[in-house]
Amino acid sequence: MSAGNELEGQELMSAEIGSGAEGRRALDQIFSVTYSELRRLAFSLRWAGSSPTLNPTALVNEAWMRLANTPEVEVTSRLHFKRIAARAMRQILVEAARRRNASKRGGGADIQVTFSPEMPETPSCGTDVLALDRALDALAEVNPRQATMVESRFFGGLDVPETAVLLNVSEATVLRDWRAAKAWLARELRTGR
Amino acid sequence: MDGARWEKIQALFHDAAKLAEPDRQAFLESRCAGDRELMSEVQALLEEDARGESLLEGGLGQLARGILDDPASALPPLRKFGRYRILKALGEGGMGIVYLAEREDLGSQVAIKVLPDAWLSPSRRERFSAEQRTLAQLNHPAIARLYDADTSPEGTPFFVMEYVEGVPLTSFCESRQCSLRERLLLVRAVCEAVLYAHQHAVIHRDLKPSNILVKSDGAVRLLDFGIARHIENLGPSAGPAITGSHPMTPAYAAPEQMRGEQTGVHADVYSLGVILYELLAGALPFDMANLSPRQAETYLNEHEAEKPSTVAERTAGQRAPEGRAAMASPAAWADLDVLCLTAIHKDVQQRYQSVEALIRDIDHYLKGEPLEARADSAAYRLRKFVMRNQQSVLTAAAVLVSILALVVFFTLRLARERDNANRQTAIATTVNQFLADDLLGRDNPFQSGRATETLLEAVERASPSINRKFRAEPDVAAHLHLIIAQTLDDRTNYPEARQEYEQAHKLFLRTQGPLSQDGIIVQLQRAAMEARSYSSGSVATATELLAEQQDLLRKIRRPRKDVAVWMLAAQGMIALIQNDAKTANTDFKAATEAAAEVPDFDPLSRFDLRQRLAFTYIRLGDGATAERLARELIAAYSAANGPESAYVLRVRLNLAQAFMIERKFGEAVQEATRIYPAFLTTFGPDHELTMQLLTTRAQSEGSLGRFDDTVRDDLAIYKIALLKQGPYSFFSVATLSDASEAQCRARRLVEGELNARRAYEAARKGFGRHAGLTEGASLTLANCLIGLGKLPEASALLDNILDLKAVEQLTGDPDWGAGVSLARAEIALRQGEYMSAENYLQLARPAFSRPDAEDYERRKLASLTAEAGRHLPDGQPPRK
Q1: Least CB-CB distance to B240: which of A26, A50, A92?
Q2: Of B44, B72, B120, the CB nearest to A99
Q3: Of A143, B38, B314, B756, which alpha carbon lies 20 to 30 A from B581's?
Q4: Chain B contacts of A29, Cβ < 8 Å?
């Protein structure tokens, strides 16, 4: 996903809000509050110890509970919100990975920014996120529906029935698409193409 | 790879995956037909599928680990923002991250707020700069100051603020063990800052102790205008609010904020109230830790805040002896309880209307003066007192309660009027004071030998002093007279109400000139009352008043919307009394709709209009619609005012009436019997509504054939009506006539004839020969006379009946005309005119042979038919 991409071409995302400038603006508002809230939540969690509660479903539900009553978000359905949250979550990870890589490369390590005292060393992660992001972009070019599906399920924690409703396909199709996309993405990441 | 090829790859992948491992090679070779590349693509996918090591398998948690944990991921790797060197992160809020930084050239410490990933969305940038603009606008010693704003070379916007080295308000009070006075002064200082913001059209919307820091010298600083809102952005036309919202802290958020409604200065008042409460009581008014906003919203709806004094007493038990309860005396607590609970009132209208009002009461407290909010609380305590006390004072008490309800309304309406706002607030306060001191007595209006004083006596005592006391302020006096007039009107004390309406009218003309719109409203309300009063000549008076007001209204260039509402209401009332239920229905429907357009229309009057609309359906004979409307109103107002409040009782009367119109007589009697005790205590036995209720019960009992019960109820009403309204009032006549009908039906013919004759004479005298009431009374008398064998007189009475329609509308009984035919048939039978009798029976038959006809009439029809049949020649069928 290229920098500067401000949600263009996301017909699924603006499905409920309407198209045109108004719809784009409304969508941007939802995205904006969702991004901020998810970002705050995501950075406030401790991802190191593998707590089972740390999954996108819980995170997005938490954000929904906090935002559902706000004027921006109440115009949209929960499912639609999850879809937008999935995009926001992907973006949050991508931005974080970019920054992290930049700081490792650029020697900004002396910056005294401390949110948590310990810092687990898993240097490959940042690259993984960016590679997955690129692979997803590539997948979107050959099959946009599949890319949306992976984004929604992986980053937004949508379950199979929700994904099926969102994409207007059968649950069997979701499972098939998921399996193929998963294998393909694994291969893309492995070969580093 | 293009889409088609990817589809092909996937199809092969899925087909192959279904096969056993050893069979796949052969399958792919046959299907790929020499396309080696295709085959290797599919094989690679199959390998990955079998391996199951995709990044996606690990889930988001695995991917995020090491990235979201790494502080380097949170912000661009920058050591500096402009001239400022970052020292450490202070925290992340809804919109941006705050750092402690140092200005390189001066070494001074500042706070920098930074918006990460600003490029992602224009609306994020808008919100961020909105906060910056807000801060730039506010220049107050207790609000953290904005120094600088810029964008980094990477495009990250940031702004630089005063760094406040302090601790949150609650911690400060805790650690310093601040005295009560110090705590109040700290909150007052915060209020000053918030008031300053309000005066600059900024609502903070996220006030909580962690946003209020106290420096070591005790100076307060207000932080984080991240979700502040500009007041001019509040209107519906403001479009998507750039200042928007983010999750606030539920414990400090006003209920309307939790519901996601538009919020105003009242939301800040609420938050300040919670903070004050917490500082005084040692605990939050609502413990909503661990609740989601949704749950918190429900919790707020279902719970009432305890008095801070109660909470303080409890928390003090868990604290050291120098704990909080020791801080305030019981008398002081009484004021502080009111102060806190007024500030955090769930109903915006009952809350302090501004931070200024809150500050005023804090000052009143600190100076030992009475609080402004306590006028309201005196009313509350009075209400409680009335509920508890004995029957003897209830008549007066019930009225006082409704006066207080009106006072609250007027206080609010006056407070909302924008022009000359201070003046209006002063009027409201004065009105309250007067009612509390002069009319009601400060604490207990029934003490000092006034325990049995009636409302009339109280008014008689108070009314002259209104003009004396408020000679210099006729507008205050006018409002007071109007309140009293409405109350007396409610009480059906019409002559006294009339005097008060006149006083109010005169004073409004004096203060606002001959075209005073308030004056017109007074006259319209009076017109409706005159119509309602059912005294002779009152309809003419009402019609005249209405016409006068219509003339005046035409001369007014910009008539207020509420004038139109009252105009329609008066028209509807007059139509209703003139038995034009259809016009009344249209008028009240229009009035209800017009009232909905007036935002601050008195809620009680709004309710009144809807109730009268429901009543018009009863008059139209549409019991089902009346029942539905009544049930809606009961549901809506029971929740707000309790199931036995005066207003709900009024509609429950309509419900009983609707049952009766629907011929659900059992339910009507049941409902009437159920609510009768409440009517006695709330309105008293002589209130017109109590009489209407008994009338309804009596009529329903009659329809069930329980004539003795009917007689008992009707005579009870008659006695009261006679005393209260004299022999020629609607109630006296109608109930006496009804009682006599039941007596005759129960074959108590002698008493029946006597009463029927009295009723008929009174109706003729009071209402005219052909008023609906008179016609109805004449049929009743005729039936009694038939029973006694006085046939010529009965016949003459029936011959005089001209206006069947009027009676049918008056009684709501569409079959009334059939009753006349039935009476004529009986006379004909007794006189041996069988053919004629059969003709009359045929006229009566459609109405009374229906299964839902009343038992008495159905049986009568059957027995008369049988009797006629016996005398008619053979071959003449007794019925069609």
Answers
A1: A26
A2: B72
A3: B756
A4: 123, 240, 244
Q: Is B594 on the interface with A (CB under 8 A)?
A: no
How many whole angstroms from its chain centre is CA A189? 18
> Is B60 close to A89, i.e. CB distance below 8 A?
yes
Instruction: Give how far Cα B202 sits from Cα of A169, B111, B230, Å.
Output: 49, 22, 5
Q: Do B119 and A45 touch (CB under 8 A)?
A: no
Domain ranges of chain A: 20-191
Domain holding B117: CATH number? 3.30.200.20
What chain A residue is nearest to B293 in terms of C-alpha separation?
A: A66
Domain span at B746: 666-871
Enumerate the β-bridge partners of residue B80.
B85
Instruction: For residue B214, give both structure tokens.
Output: 């106290």
Closest chain A residue to the Cα of B18, Cα to Cα: A176
Across the A:B interface, residue pairs with CB atoms under 8 Å apart total: 244
State CA B152 to chain mean position distance.
53
B267 close to B253: Cβ distance less than 8 angstroms: yes
Consecutive 10-residue runs of chain B (880 residues): their mean pLDDT? Answer: 88 90 88 86 90 77 76 66 83 76 87 81 80 85 88 84 90 89 93 89 85 91 77 40 48 80 84 94 82 73 84 71 55 83 86 88 80 52 35 42 49 42 50 53 36 54 70 74 76 82 92 89 93 79 93 89 92 86 93 85 77 88 90 81 72 91 90 89 76 87 89 88 80 88 91 93 84 85 94 88 66 74 90 84 84 83 89 55
CATH of the domain at B850: 1.25.40.10
Report the alpha-carbon distance of residue B561 to residue B594 in Å, rounded.
Answer: 7
Q: Do residue B150 and residue B203 come from a single domain? A: no
Q: Rounded to whole angstroms, how far apart are CA atoms B754 and B279? A: 76
Q: Residue A104's closest chain B neighbor by CA?
A: B72
Give me the sign of the Cα torsion angle B262, B265, B270, B272: positive
Mark whether B386 and B357 lie in a shared domain: no
CA torsion angle A22 A24 A27 A28 (round to 10): -110
Q: Is B260 close to A70, i.e. CB distance below 8 A?
A: yes
B638, B655 Cβ separation under 8 angstroms = no
Distance between CA B316 and CA B283 in Å, rounded? 10
Asked whether the beta carbons of residue A112 and residue B70 sit closer than 8 angstroms, the reply is no
* Coil, strand or helix at B313: helix
Same domain flag for B214 and B356: yes
Q: Tell me the shortest Cα–Cα distance from A93 to chain B, in angstroms.
A: 7
Total length of chain A: 193
Same domain, yes or no: B836 and B807: yes
Closest Cβ opposite residue A66 in set B78, B244, B293? B293
A147 and chain B: CB distance < 8 Å anywhere? Answer: no
Checking ipTM against 0.85, whether it exceeds it is: no
Residue B549: inside a domain, yes or no? no
Using CA atoms, how far apart are residues B225 and B188, in angstroms rounded to an integer?
19
- Does A31 sit within 8 Å of B121, measured CB to CB? yes
The dihedral built from the CA positions of residue A135, A136, A137 and A138, taken in this order, carries a sign that is positive
For B186, the token pair is 């700290």
Taking the Cβ of residue A95 and every Cβ of chain B, the question of whether any pair is shorter than 8 Å is answered with yes
